[in-house]
Specification:
Elements lengths: L6 H8 L1 H5 L27 E5 L3 E5 L4 E6 L2 E6 L16 H7 L7 H6 L1 E3 L9 E4 L5 E8 L2 E6 L4 H13 L1 E2 L2 E2 L5 H20 L6 H14 L2 H21 L8 H13 L11 E8 L2 E8 L7 E2 L5 E9 L7 E9 L2 E12 L16 E6 L5 H17 L3 E8 L2 H10 L5 E5 L8 E6 L2 E10 L2 E9 L7 E5 H12 L6 E5 L4 H9 L7 E6 L13 H11 L3 H8 L3 H5 L5 E2 L12 E12 L5 E2 L7
Parallel strand pairs: 17-19, 17-22, 19-24, 24-25
Antiparallel strand pairs: 1-8, 2-3, 2-5, 3-4, 6-7, 7-8, 9-10, 11-12, 12-14, 13-14, 15-16, 16-27, 18-21, 20-23, 21-22, 25-26, 27-28
Helix pairs in contact: 6-7, 8-9, 14-15
């Protein structure tokens, strides 16, 4: 999570082939005959790069040029050479392009009539493909959510096919790819990057078997960080297939993301998560479905196409369950024994009319950037949130060290002055905790005086990856909210920015009454917060700050391509039929334990990718 993988990193990965080849330099390279079978370095590929539905794509087939526009910036490509005009960074391909495309999100109508305006938001299940006069193919296909990839094909498809076959066979130029000299690897790496992105976007890396087949190529040419870029995309694609496929595994998409990602990751490095296991308790339509999950074979279970194992444990109907139900399961995986004790308490609707607007009166807020985020993402989010609140008139005058982050957060919630809480982080497959923080951190405090009252915002973060984590279980979260309710009249507005966070919201909402908590989460992947008018999280935060009506906020969100498609940023508001309080829920209290050898059982937390 999603969150969605940072856009600039993906762009750099996807543009690797175009920006590294000699043929992509400003001076056009002369046309050369097809390369001998061993000399693939002359193979002309690219560009291949990511975009989303908010971006505009225009293909001028006659002139063999491509333009992509977003946020008032247009990037142009000369498709005859196979790459951008600059080997350093993508730029407009000519002054004429800048004049004709300008700095607009969409080109003039006259230009659209001359070529083809590609409606990428309509490519939900199919790819757009064309063959240009120069013989190159160009395609746009969906990767996941509202993220797409543009690929410009090779000049010589036969040589490219031979190159791919040789890579998968494990030998190039008469040498095993694992033993190739570094200079040759560096020379061929841009071609390999294109080949792997082609495999991922074409569906050849949509399951665990594909990753097994391609793992030798990844190991030979890609660093661990570069492999992660492909794995993140695969995680989201897997989650979509798990939740929408004909053989749905009846688990939260965020949990399927972690297990599919984990299985593929273990092909590249061994870690303790070889014993990664969990019990899924998935709520939908008044029923709770239990399923045992494991990264190794489970007795009585089966392996799925994503490389992990599942075993059905049964289900209960919340509407007819009556009182508390207690379950106990035990299993063995690898050299360890595990046990799970789960109590299920039915929670019926309170019958109150759902609210129609946010409470307003937002004098105090806290933004927590939690421990599931990478340091680079934290830096970007600190900049984005401070920019946002500065635009509202807040002044940030000091950054303070927080010695005990748990006490800081608990105190802010419990003392009753906090009006809203934003949690920006990943779901991480966690069914037990409202948030995960480092034990220490920093607090950026911003203040604003308006009409004689002082408003305050705190941004809590930590830029270092540390092993000591603090988790806020839903049961403890409920106790803090109960204490808060003694001082505060309005419910705490809790904006959870994690992917598929509405599944986690069910767990939190089942613990507390509506008078204490108004949780806003999404039923889809979520883009990181950005201080732009097209960012869905900012739109929701605007609504919280302004005390906006849900109808007004929905109208604004529907103007965003991601939200309107339902594939990303689909925040579920309290007046929506999908909001968790509109259906019977179960309060789920879990305790997982682990034993290795004769060692006694100890608490077990499936940490996912933290």
């Amino acid at each position: 999570m999603i969150r969605l993988f940072p856009e600039m990193i993906l762009r750099l990965v996807f543009l690797l082939c175009a920006l590294s080849l000699p043929e992509c330099s400003a001076a056009a390279a002369p046309v050369r005959p097809a390369a001998p079978a061993c000399d693939y370095s002359s193979l002309e590929l690219g560009p291949a790069f990511q975009l989303n539905a908010d971006e505009h794509v225009f293909v001028d087939q006659a002139r063999e040029r491509l333009a992509v526009s977003w946020d008032g910036v247009t990037i142009g490509y000369d498709l005859d050479r196979g790459g951008p005009t600059s080997a350093k960074e993508p730029q407009r391909f000519s002054r004429e392009a800048e004049r004709r495309f300008g700095r607009k999100a969409r080109p003039p109508a006259s230009l659209a009539r001359a070529g083809e305006d590609v409606p990428i938001e309509g490519l939900a299940g199919s790819a757009w493909r064309k063959t240009l006069p120069n013989g190159r193919s160009i395609s746009i296909s969906r990767l996941y959510a509202n993220n797409y990839v543009i690929k410009v094909g090779p000049k010589d498809s036969e040589v490219y096919r031979s190159f791919g076959d040789a890579l998968l066979a494990g030998s190039l130029c008469g040498r095993p790819i694992a033993l190739m000299p570094r200079p040759l690897k560096r020379k061929l790496k841009p071609l390999v990057a294109y080949f792997l992105m082609d495999a991922l976007s074409s569906g050849r890396l949509d399951d665990y078997a594909g990753w097994v087949e391609y793992s030798r190529v990844f190991k030979a040419f890609m660093s661990r960080k570069e492999i992660e870029a492909y794995l993140y995309i695969y995680g989201y694609r897997s989650a979509e297939r798990i939740s929408n496929g004909p053989a749905a595994i009846t688990m939260g998409p965020y949990k399927g993301w972690v297990f599919a990602w984990n299985a593929a990751t273990l092909l590249f490095h061994k870690k303790d998560s070889i014993n990664f296991t969990d019990v899924s308790s998935y709520q939908r339509d008044g029923k709770v479905t239990f399923k045992l999950l494991g990264s190794q074979p489970i007795q009585g279970g089966a392996e799925n196409r994503f490389g992990f194992y599942t075993k059905p444990l049964g289900e209960i109907d919340v509407r007819t369950a009556g009182s508390v139900k207690k379950f106990h399961w035990s299993w063995r995986q690898g050299d360890r024994d595990y046990a799970a004790d789960i109590n299920v308490t039915p929670v019926m609707n309170d019958g109150e009319t759902p609210p129609s607007a946010f409470p307003g009166h937002t004098r105090r807020g806290l933004v927590a950037l939690d421990a599931t985020l990478a340091p680079n993402d934290v830096r970007d989010l600190v900049a984005a949130y401070t920019s946002y609140f500065r635009s509202l008139g807040f002044r940030f005058t000091r950054r303070m060290a927080v010695a005990v982050a748990p006490a800081f957060v608990e105190n802010e919630i419990a003392k009753g002055k906090l009006d809203f809480l934003v949690r920006d982080g990943h779901s991480d497959g966690d069914d037990d905790d409202a948030m995960v923080l480092y034990r220490t951190g920093f607090d950026l405090e911003g203040r604003k005086v308006e009409k004689g009252r002082t408003m305050r915002i705190d941004i809590l973060f930590n830029l270092k990856k540390k092993p000591h984590l603090w988790r806020l279980p839903y049961s403890n979260f409920a106790m803090l909210l109960e204490r808060r309710s003694r001082e505060a009249k309005n419910p705490l507005v809790y904006l959870d920015g994690s992917c598929w966070g509405v599944e986690k919201a069910k767990l939190a909402i089942a613990h507390v009454p509506a008078s204490q908590l108004m949780e806003i989460a999404a039923s889809s992947p979520v883009n990181f917060f950005r201080n732009t008018g097209r960012n869905a999280m900012r739109a929701v935060l605007d609504g919280v700050m302004q005390g906006a009506s849900f109808a007004g906020l929905s109208a604004r969100l529907y103007k965003l391509a991601g939200y309107a498609s339902g594939r990303e940023d689909r925040f579920v508001l309290p007046d929506d039929p999908l909001y968790p309080r509109s259906e019977p829920l179960a309060r789920i209290d879990r305790r997982l334990q682990m034993r290795r050898g004769r060692a006694p059982f100890k608490p077990y937390t499936p940490d996912g990718y933290i």
